[in-house]
# Entry
Amino acid sequence: MLSYGLTLAAASEILKANVSRADAGFAIAVFAVTSIATIAAPIVVVVVAPERSTERLATWKAWLLGNSRAVVLVVLMVVAAFLTVRGISDLV
# Structure
């Protein structure tokens, strides 16, 4: 998980959403799977193809380092759009 604070905040928001237990469980499961994917992907690469894992992980690292500003910008734009839509819907 990214951090305990983020996980607790997500679980709190899901539980406050006033949805059924099945929907809340599904939302928590989706959050857990998506947040652990960034940790599991390199491990899976090493287990599945250990002979090619070094070069593949180096390629991923180079891409992330080269595009880190763009990745952060896109993430922040998505968060800003979500907060804007949520704020407008609360006003209406």
